[in-house]
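Example record

Each entry pairs one chain with its bound ligand, adenosine-5'-diphosphate.
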Amino acid sequence: MVSSAAKQQFQKDTQAYGEMNDDPSVSTKKKKAPKVAWETLREKLREHLGETAFRRWIEPVVVEVEEDERGATLAMAVPTRFMRDWIEAHYGDIVRTLWLSLVEKGSVQFSVVSPLLKPDVSLKSSIKGNSFPSAVRLSQASPSAADEAPLDPRFTFDNFVVGKPNELAYAAACRVADTETPTFNPLFLYGGSGLGKTHLMHAIAWHIRQNFPNRRVIYMSAEKFMYQFVRALRYKDTVSFKDQFRSVDVLMIDDVQFIGGKDTTQEEFFHTFNALVDRNRQVIVSADKSPQDLDRVEERLRSRLGWGLVADLHPANYELRLGILGAKAEKHGCPIPDKVIEFLAHKIASNVRELEGALNRIVAHAQLVGRTISVEMAQEVLADVLRTSERRITIDEIQKKVAEHYNIRIADMHSARRARAVARPRQIAMYLAKQLTPRSLPEIGRKFGGRDHTTVIHAVRKIEELSAYDPAFREDVDLLKRLLQG
Ligand code: ADP
Ligand code: MG
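Structure tokens for the complex follow.
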């Protein structure tokens, strides 16, 4: 299906073409103006070939119509030699016959243009970098597709270090990148910040671009999706907005948790999502939480997001951290002693982004100040980072300490028992988890026997209330807090 925006683009382009050729001296007698002829031809081809073959073979073609005394030449350029040979062999005759039935005089030429997609250009510039200024690029969904985010050239599969914590997500990403018919739809990637979700999505886009250049891919953050949608609403242009997304082969939306609470955007995303999945197009979504845990997202969307494969990225373990640091150190081309790599892998456990940042700082420091890299030097350069990452308190620790303090079993932190003697300490532990860890309310709820986030909110309020009225109680809670903070 060609979007109405693509049609508009087509009209704009062919109009420009018409203006250029308004010189009466070159006008030839013909049955149809070439631009109209091509439009007719395209529709006839769609009928003849069927939607699937049309999309696969004709839509990616870049078409240019030239007119001179020899008639109307239909120049059809495709990205690969294989495609050109295929189209010529299978559809050459029909295209020629139809073309000649539509114009007075003319010919059809097939050629190969170097793929528009080179690995070192962003999606944005590659779409704009159309080598035919007045041509119609049918595979370009719409002009606004150029609003997609550019891809980071470092985020490739080659640069992704695989280990136990991310192997499922990695394998799933490779699978969707390599297969044209979705085996699981959607692919839902989730995990904490800095664990490689965006990296994997970009890697999928790069891979498809290199290996299946005629598959249309849109990669976009949920935030951008919302922004574009709101803009489309404002300019009453939702039709081309819809078309832009609904005519792609692969849609990737990053950080989908962002649409929580944005009701109209959710609604639109839900419909786009369904339209694509129904047509067997691949949808890939990332978030910082699992589908069930997405805050303020409608139930039907949450459940739909969980239909395909849900793959989580776990925080990198020591082994994976070593692997990542080793790979990145090599890229820096600056020798880093194993001892320093081990030191960093040991000390910075939070996420890969911080690990990378630490390494960059050490290398920059070494290069700028000309110091040799050593463990002492790393300790000094990273003093601030190391302090914060050393003092990370976990919910498990909190539960243990609180249970000890009130002399209850740790199991009661997870149990459904409502007796005050266990319920109150459990509430205190929830409160401390909220205060002392960066965990979200649903995450905390889950850690306490799969309780709802509203239960956690209730616990936090209750403890605040009691602390305000009862100094002894407040002291008790403060004591626990200090104990935990060490
Ligand atoms: P997220 O989107 O999950 O917040 P990113 O994909 O932006 O995280 O990753 C943060 C940084 O860590 C990026 O620079 C990325 O290249 C790097 N990174 C994450 N995981 C890996 C990995 N397994 N191998 C190599 N680099 C990684
Ligand atoms: Mg990201």
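The beta strands are 62-68, 71-78, 106-112, 136-137, 187-191, 217-221, 250-254, 282-287, 309-313.
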